[in-house]
């Protein structure tokens, strides 16, 4: 869909692009100024593979301040975005046939990274009726002797599901009682600061410190600080895992940009008021779209608790015909139809959940108004 969307836009067609997984806000000024100072000060040479001491200190303080996690500098890995950190963790640990449990729907890259490193994806079923939340019983039943990782992404891309302390404690109880005490837990907190309705964020290592020797907590500056292009992700985890990931990174790209690292220090250690303000704007956008989508017959949209996506159930439209008489056989065909109507969305099949659709509201209010009107008209025209 991304390529189809690009082609449509290049052809001059009016398309509201709701496929993007990045904020539409600029990087805050104080972060850009820190990067400019770093260049002027000559901070343009190689850095340690795991990041500058200053950045790792800022990361350690962030974990302490925001999450109540104690993390030494030697337990921190810094890469070119959260994706590299995740890739290195799987590359360093997976053997052919190892199983990786991930609640569905899931970020598409998880699946690809697992398979590229010889692993076997084990999707954990969820339902829209329960806001795509994983049940501890489903987790318990999925653990096998081959299980190597459990991945938890909260708030989630694409569903916006955000786990509470009680839910995480239930997962921890399952893990403690499992016969397999060797698998690791990856916690992807990249949307930590985009959380709605007054919810308090909690991460897995925070509520299960006894499992810290098995937990890799992944985060980054891309989403909260509108720094997707700066490419800075990081993680805190047990020393054996961080050391293995560092060996991998040493032969891939050495380290992320020294200037980006200086900017990340300013993001993590600087004022956070702009992050909170932007979160409020995302919540307003979410509420607007939920109200508009509620008026579209057949479109069921669970209320996301965080991130900046809606993940509606569009199964009621599969099998219908377009005004031109074309039968929509699946969610990919429906996404193509919507693109023809001027709204670009991502089929749920790419997130392990066919029959659903991901729409990002990281775009302007005007664009959201146009997109909602186009969706209502185009879906209403299906027979």
From TrEMBL:
<keyword id="KW-0808">Transferase</keyword>
<dbReference type="GO" id="GO:0030170">
    <property type="term" value="F:pyridoxal phosphate binding"/>
</dbReference>
<keyword id="KW-0663">Pyridoxal phosphate</keyword>
<protein>
    <recommendedName>
        <fullName>Aminotransferase</fullName>
        <ecNumber>2.6.1.-</ecNumber>
    </recommendedName>
</protein>
<dbReference type="InterPro" id="IPR004839">
    <property type="entry name" value="Aminotransferase_I/II_large"/>
</dbReference>
<comment type="similarity">
    <text>Belongs to the class-I pyridoxal-phosphate-dependent aminotransferase family.</text>
</comment>
<dbReference type="Pfam" id="PF00155">
    <property type="entry name" value="Aminotran_1_2"/>
</dbReference>
<dbReference type="GO" id="GO:0006520">
    <property type="term" value="P:amino acid metabolic process"/>
</dbReference>
<dbReference type="InterPro" id="IPR015424">
    <property type="entry name" value="PyrdxlP-dep_Trfase"/>
</dbReference>
<dbReference type="InterPro" id="IPR015421">
    <property type="entry name" value="PyrdxlP-dep_Trfase_major"/>
</dbReference>
<dbReference type="InterPro" id="IPR050596">
    <property type="entry name" value="AspAT/PAT-like"/>
</dbReference>
<feature type="domain" description="Aminotransferase class I/classII large">
    <location>
        <begin position="14"/>
        <end position="374"/>
    </location>
</feature>
<dbReference type="InterPro" id="IPR015422">
    <property type="entry name" value="PyrdxlP-dep_Trfase_small"/>
</dbReference>
<dbReference type="GO" id="GO:0008483">
    <property type="term" value="F:transaminase activity"/>
</dbReference>
<keyword id="KW-0032">Aminotransferase</keyword>
<dbReference type="InterPro" id="IPR004838">
    <property type="entry name" value="NHTrfase_class1_PyrdxlP-BS"/>
</dbReference>
């Amino acid at each position: 869909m991304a390529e189809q969307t690009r082609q449509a836009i290049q052809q001059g067609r009016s398309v509201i692009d709701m496929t993007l997984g990045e904020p539409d806000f600029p990087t805050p000024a104080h972060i850009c100024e820190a990067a400019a100072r770093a260049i002027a000060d000559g901070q343009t040479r190689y850095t340690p593979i795991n990041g500058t001491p200053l950045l790792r200190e800022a990361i350690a303080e962030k974990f302490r301040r925001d999450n109540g996690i104690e993390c030494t500098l030697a337990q921190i890995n810094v890469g070119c975005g959260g994706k590299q950190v995740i890739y290195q963790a799987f590359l360093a640990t997976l053997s052919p046939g190892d199983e990786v449990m991930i609640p569905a729907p899931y970020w598409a890259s998880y699946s690809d990274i697992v398979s590229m490193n010889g692993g076997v994806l084990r999707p954990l079923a969820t339902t829209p009726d329960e806001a795509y939340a994983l049940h501890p019983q489903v987790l318990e039943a999925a653990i096998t002797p081959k299980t190597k990782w459990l991945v938890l992404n909260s708030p989630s891309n694409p569903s916006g599901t955000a786990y509470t302390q009680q839910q995480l404690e239930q997962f921890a109880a399952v893990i403690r009682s499992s016969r397999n005490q060797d698998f690791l837990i990856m916690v992807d907190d990249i949307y930590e600061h985009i959380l709605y309705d007054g919810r308090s964020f909690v991460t897995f290592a925070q509520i299960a410190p006894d499992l810290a020797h098995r937990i890799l907590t992944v985060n980054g500056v891309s989403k909260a600080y509108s720094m997707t292009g700066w490419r800075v992700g990081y993680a805190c985890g047990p020393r054996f895992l961080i050391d293995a990931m560092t060996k991998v990174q040493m032969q891939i790209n050495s380290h992320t940009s020294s200037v980006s690292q200086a900017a990340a220090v300013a993001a993590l250690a600087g004022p956070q008021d702009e992050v909170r303000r932007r979160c409020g704007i995302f919540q307003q956008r979410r509420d607007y779209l939920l109200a508009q989508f509620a008026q579209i017959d057949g479109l069921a949209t669970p209320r996301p608790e965080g991130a900046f996506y809606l993940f509606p159930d569009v199964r009621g439209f599969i099998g219908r015909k377009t005004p031109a008489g074309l039968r929509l056989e699946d969610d990919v065909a429906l996404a193509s139809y919507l693109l023809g109507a001027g709204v670009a969305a991502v089929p749920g099949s790419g997130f392990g959940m066919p029959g659903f659709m991901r729409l990002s509201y990281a775009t302007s209010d005007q664009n959201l108004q146009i997109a909602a009107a186009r969706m209502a008209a185009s879906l209403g025209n299906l027979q």
